[in-house]
Amino acid sequence: MKPGYEQIRNDREINLLIEQGNRNLKVLGYTEHSRKHAVKVAETAGRILKELGYRRRQVEMAKIAGYMHDIGNTVNRYDHAHSSAVLAYGILKERGMKLEDILTITSAIGQHDEETGTAVDAVSAALILADKTDVRRNRVQNPVPANFDIHDRVNYSVKKSQLKINEEHTLIKLKLSVDTKYGSVMDYFEIFMQRMILCRKAAEKLGLQFKLMINEQQLI
């Protein structure tokens, strides 16, 4: 399908788009959307499909979509899923990728935001699950805890995050360890309910049930 994930991950133009987008978001007070987030989402999306027995090509497409899904933040945070998809289409076409693969990847990228998207196939489902479950303390870019908004509090409160598929391949579970000193379970639901619904639908597209556990209590 060339180019592959490793080529995309080391592509200077793509990495500049990711880092410029993250600089924009940092100024606006958003959580981290740097190459660290891109790699985390890519690797998680690929792992989901690999564990479920999908073909290597689909695993690779999920990883590429995961790495490129936020490049549109360099344009604007608003409607970034669609601008990311349009940018990715041009870049991947220029790099000589097969059109059929480009369309799968750009479709997944364009569907990853909870405001406008939903899972339409396995690649988009894996991307959504990987992106929306990347909740962790070191995504907070605000250095002053006293100035944390609700997104900062929720991300900072997460001490440990695990996304696991059971051996029977019937269930995918997001397990969070939350320090309620910084953010409550209710805070989490206030900002993430729409994302968790999107995850449930994405899991269903993969033939899985989605469950959320916070501090050993099942909430979804």
How would you characterize the overall build of this protein?
The chain is an alpha+beta fold and 220 residues long. Helix content is 54%, strand content 11%. It has 9 helices and 4 strands; from the N terminus they run H-H-H-H-H-H-H-H-E-E-H-E-E. It has helices at residues 5-9, 12-28, 35-51, 56-68, 80-94, 99-110, 122-132, 150-157, 185-205; strands at residues 158-165, 171-178, 209-214, 217-218. Strands 1-2-3-4 form a 4-stranded mixed sheet. The protein is globular. The model has no long low-confidence stretch (mean pLDDT 94).
Number of strands: 4
Which spans of ≥5 residues are poorly predicted at pLDDT below 50? none
**What percent of residues adopt helix (DSSP H or I)?**
40-55%
Major sheet strand order: 1-2-3-4
Mean pLDDT score:
94
How would you spell out the order of helices and strands?
Answer: HHHHHHHHEEHEE
For the biggest sheet, the summary is: 4 strands, mixed
Shape label: globular
What is the CA-atom radius of gyration, in angstroms?
A: 17 Å
Distance between the termini: 38 Å
**Number of alpha- plus pi-helical segments:** 9
Features:
alpha+beta, 220 residues, 4 strands, 9 helices, four-stranded mixed β-sheet
Give a topology summary.
Blueprint: H1 5-9, H2 12-28, H3 35-51, H4 56-68, H5 80-94, H6 99-110, H7 122-132, H8 150-157, E1 158-165, E2 171-178, H9 185-205, E3 209-214, E4 217-218
Parallel strand pairs: 2-3
Antiparallel strand pairs: 1-2, 3-4
Helix pairs in contact: 3-4, 3-7, 4-6, 4-7, 5-6, 6-7, 7-9, 8-9
